[in-house]
Amino acid sequence: MLEWTKENPLVKRIRLWRWFGTSNQMSRNDYVFNDYKSLPRVLLFEPGGSSAEVLLYGGKVVSWKNSQGEELLFMSKKASGRSPKGGISLCFPQLGNMGIMKEISSSKNCVKSLDNIPLRLSPTGNPSSVDLTLKTSPNNLNTWPRSFELRLRVSLGPDKLTIMSHIKNTDSTSFSFTFSLQNYFLVSDISEVRVEGLETLDFLDNLEQGKRFTEQPDAITFDGEVNRVYTRTPGNIAIIDHKKKRTIVIRNEGLPDAELWTPWDNASKAAVSGFGDKDYKTMLSIDSGVLENPITLKPSEEWKGYQELSIISSSYCSGQLDAKTVAFYAKSSKV
């Protein structure tokens, strides 16, 4: 089993080849790796030392390391096949039972996940970014009979990872959808982590049949199972890991909702979601999405969503995180 959270010796033996695809023209800096599970992936890197790996299947991000080489995303050791659990996944046109489609599933299972769908790779000429495209095909028409184009850009910066999503209606009629970026973060100990930026917000509690509640005016800590969708979230959400002395800031545009999830020690729910029964100890999921109120696009209209993940200096990891500091950092680090 591939060890996702440590440097793997298999990486040294993988075959490096250039991806020409159907368009042929690729930069000499654009490479695709195949690991031992035959999962083609693009390796991104930047001069400061940060790196990321993006699967061509679904545009799933399976690794993001900071300038010190520390892994920031959680990948389950139970992961296998073309849909390894963890990292950052895209869900479209619907996540779970949020949206307009009739299928009902666990809130952490995508009615339409892109993880098993190969995306077309386009050249960027930049080793720190990758462009991927998905257009309507007979396969996805069977699941969702609408014509669309989805474009995804994943970009790497110094201790920063951004994902820009574009969805265009290429159909002759209007359609509606929900969208989510499922982010699984690697933490030292879930009981030692707190989340700031969701205080006093309304949320839908999936453990209470989706009933609406209001969050307390305090940072969120964890001592049991949590499965909530926070609506109309602010621009910044912070994950503060005391043991790692590290804060990750999530900044969004066009993605107003956030799903917060940990199965805790509920082994059956973890198994249903594809995780091991002990994975919860070092994993926290905070999704960025459009969940409560679906987006409706008329023919030729386009929707854009933006997510930026960044790391704040460890000096901000003790005491209450100052919202102005987070806002300033996010603004100054935006590409």
UniProtKB/TrEMBL annotation:
Q: What class of enzyme is it?
A: isomerase
Which Gene Ontology terms of cellular component type are present?
A: cytoplasm
GO-annotated molecular function: carbohydrate binding; glucose-6-phosphate 1-epimerase activity
Q: Which UniProt keywords apply?
A: Isomerase
- The EC number on file is 5.1.3.15
One GO term (biological process) = carbohydrate metabolic process
A Pfam family this chain is assigned to: Aldose_epim
Q: Would I find Methyltransferase among this entry's keywords? A: no
Q: What does the record give as the reaction this protein catalyses?
A: alpha-D-glucose 6-phosphate = beta-D-glucose 6-phosphate
InterPro entries recorded for this chain? Aldose_1/G6P_1-epimerase, G6P_1-epimerase, Gal_mutarotase_sf_dom, GH-type_carb-bd
* Annotated family: Belongs to the glucose-6-phosphate 1-epimerase family.
Task: Output the PANTHER family linked to this UniProt entry.
Answer: APOSPORY-ASSOCIATED PROTEIN C-RELATED (PTHR11122), GLUCOSE-6-PHOSPHATE 1-EPIMERASE (PTHR11122:SF51)
Q: What is this protein called?
A: glucose-6-phosphate 1-epimerase
UniProt source species: Deinandra increscens subsp. villosa
